[in-house]
Amino acid sequence: MIKLLLKFAFKAGVLTLASLFILSVVMLPAAERAGGGIYDKTLRLHIRANSDDARDQELKLKVRDGVISFLTPLLEDCTSSAECVTRARSLEREIEEEAKKVLCDEGCDLPVRARIAREYYPTREYGDCAYPAGVYDSLEISIGEGAGQNWWCVVFPPLCLDRSAAQDDALKSGYTDGEAATVKREGAGEVRFFLLDLIAKIRHWFD
Question: Residue 60's closest CA among 39, 74, 46?
Answer without folding.
Answer: 46
